[in-house]
Amino acid sequence: MDAVQKKAVVLLSGGLDSSTTLAIARSEGYELYALSFRYGQRHAREVEAAAGVALATGVKRHVILDIDLRSFGASALTDNIEVPKGRDVSEISKDIPVTYVPARNTIFLSFALAFAESIHARDIFIGVNAIDFSGYPDCRPEFVAAFERLANLATKAGVEGQSFTIHAPLISMAKSRIIKTGMSLGVDYSLTTTCYDPSKEGKACGSCEACLLRLQGFHEAGLKDPVEYA
Question: Against a cut of 0.70, is the pTM above it?
Fold first, then answer.
C-alpha cells in the first residue's frame, strides 16, 4: 500500500449488497467515505441501517444527502404505487418492475463522483448486481462501464488524467455468494435492511421482491437471515 492510504467513496443504502461492498472496499485497504440518501423513499429504515453499518465498519466519514425524488414519482418506492408482493423469484428479472426508481443509480453515482473529486478520491464503489437485479437497467455491467467513461470526461480530475474507477465487485455474484463473502469479511447482516415495504416497527415484510431474493440467498448459502420479519 502507498504511504498515503487510498480513499474510496462507497454508495451505502443500508442493504445487504451495499454493506458487503463496503466491507470489500475495507478489505482492499481503502479509507472509507460512505454516501447515503434520503431520496423520498417509502421509509427511513434503510437510512438508519446505513448509519449503523457505517459505524460498525469504521468509515472515515458518512454523508447522508437529502434529495426528493418524490417530486418525479413514477416508482412504487417514491409514489403512491403498491409494492408488488409474492411474485415468483424466477420471474423477477424478466421485466422492469414498478419498484424501479427512474435513473436512481445515475443520480446516486453523480453525487458520489462529486464527493470523490472533492476529497481527491479516485475510486467509487457501488453494490449493483446483474444476476439478482430485479430487472433494473442501471445494475448492468454496460451501465457501470458507461458511467466510468462519463466520469472521466465530466470532471476536472478526469480530463487532467487522474482517472476515476467505478468498482462493482458484486456485479456477477449470486446472492448466496455475496452473503458468504460478507460473512467472511465480518459483515453483521442483522444491521442491514432490504425490504421495500417494512412494517412501522421496521420489520421486513418477507414477500416483496427484495425480501424474496434476500431470503433465497440466505437459504442457498445454508444460513439463517438474522433480520426480523413481520
Answer: yes
